[in-house]
Amino acid sequence: MRIENELSSPFDKSRGHGAALSFSKYTVPKMELLKACWDREWILVRRNAYIYVAKTVQLIIMAIIVSTLFIKSKMHTRNEEDGAVYIGALLFTIIFNIFNGLAELTLVIKRLPVFYKQRELQFHPAWTFTLPTFLLQLPSSIIESLVWVSITYYSIGFAPEANR
Prior knowledge:
Blueprint: H1 2-8, H2 30-47, H3 49-69, H4 80-100, H5 102-120, H6 126-156
Helix pairs in contact: 2-6, 3-6
């Protein structure tokens, strides 16, 4: 009965110690959370660097194969059949670049339980977890796209001159 009476009345905050109560949702400032998540993601990127190197090597090999398959000397722009060959080259490019990202999918799936647990326990907001992941993957995606375009764009014949 005494405990029930004690719990039924609201807590008098003036009796408690000031440092014992949390006045913010997260105990660490958001910039420190972002820096900690950034450091964690950077460590994961360095640890899995061999995956990114293997993806880039695979991309270079496939770009060379595609460049020889759809070689410019055989590509013409006379009729719809020639357009279908160009569409085939574009479709292969899109499909290959989509499936090239599947190597990172297992890495993302492995991190999901940690993300959900930390989000539910309110260790940090979701954006501090996802923003470093996005920003650290962006340079590798840009490099892969530039490598693919630099090898295949002129050799397939999407542009008549190399300086375009």
